[in-house]
């Protein structure tokens, strides 16, 4: 299903409005079978069950059965009909959840109340994990009040100082997600501090290389431009003042940051100063991974599940075509 992000006027863009459309689109498809690793606190267990109740996912809970049942009873949560795979502790939960995905038991992996590093260590394990030929990366799906379109920010959570080859995968992962959930052909801005290429700022050189990769078909499915400073990427007025003529400048939808530090600060600035919501998905593994935080709102958790579920539907179609 295509999700139309362009019909919302910037003046009427309200918190959660873009997420509402993603959630509604995901409800219309078959819920994605989702392995939930260690949902052993009220927030993570409730998040999985709320996504189930919204028709987004069908959860399989992996963790200490007595603890999961105890949390459900304390919170008044209904586990009727939900499969629980027993695992003694968080490390075992992560390993068992990844094993279930490898066995084809789920289309999505969802983080529960364990540390992100603990889950990703199992995902990235060379022999038993979920690695592919792609670099694993993270995408924030941002709903920014007053901004008409959904913004993707990548990578602000996994790759600390990625080189050009890693950034190629980071860009392609984000592009594939954007197109896969039905948002059309994205406009991708490779961010730096300035819009000119200079050896004094390495990220401008990397941006130029990524743009040439797009020209040569090493990055596909998107319009890519850079280097662009943040204002020139999202503000048509700023791009016009600088005289930048580009289909991306001033209208970017995917923002590719120079490194994790810059991306993390950008995403948190938008979250805490602009009151944006930030859903999160990890890509590049065998299945999309839903990363949620204890600080996430209900709407943000549902949006993360909705985006992952929409992408799972798109991947089902690709798998069906490949099997023919």
Could you explain how this protein is built, in words?
The protein is of the alpha/beta class. The protein is 43% helix and 17% strand. The protein contains eleven helices and eleven strands. The protein has helices at residues 17-27, 42-53, 65-75, 90-102, 116-124, 164-180, 202-215, 230-234, 236-241, 260-273, 298-323; strands at residues 32-37, 57-63, 83-86, 108-111, 137-143, 151-154, 187-191, 223-228, 254-256, 277-283, 289-290. It has an eleven-stranded mixed beta sheet, with helices on both faces. β10 and β11 form a beta hairpin. The radius of gyration is 20 Å and the shape is globular. The model is unreliable at 6-13 and 320-324 (pLDDT under 50).
List keywords for this structure.
single chain; alpha/beta; 11 helices; 324 residues; 43% helix
* Class derived from helix and strand content: alpha/beta
User: How much of the residues is beta strand, in percent?
Assistant: 15-25%
The number of helical segments is 11
Task: Tell me the strand order in the biggest sheet.
Answer: 3-2-1-4-11-10-5-6-9-7-8
Weakly predicted, low-confidence segments? 6-13, 320-324
Number of strands: 11
**How would you sum up the global shape?**
globular
What share of residues is helical?
Answer: 40-55%
The CA-CA distance between the termini, in Å, is 22 Å
Largest sheet: 11 strands, mixed
* N-to-C order of helices and strands: HEHEHEHEHEEHEHEHHEHEEH
How would you classify the quaternary structure?
A: single chain
* Average pLDDT rating: 91
Radius of gyration: 20 Å
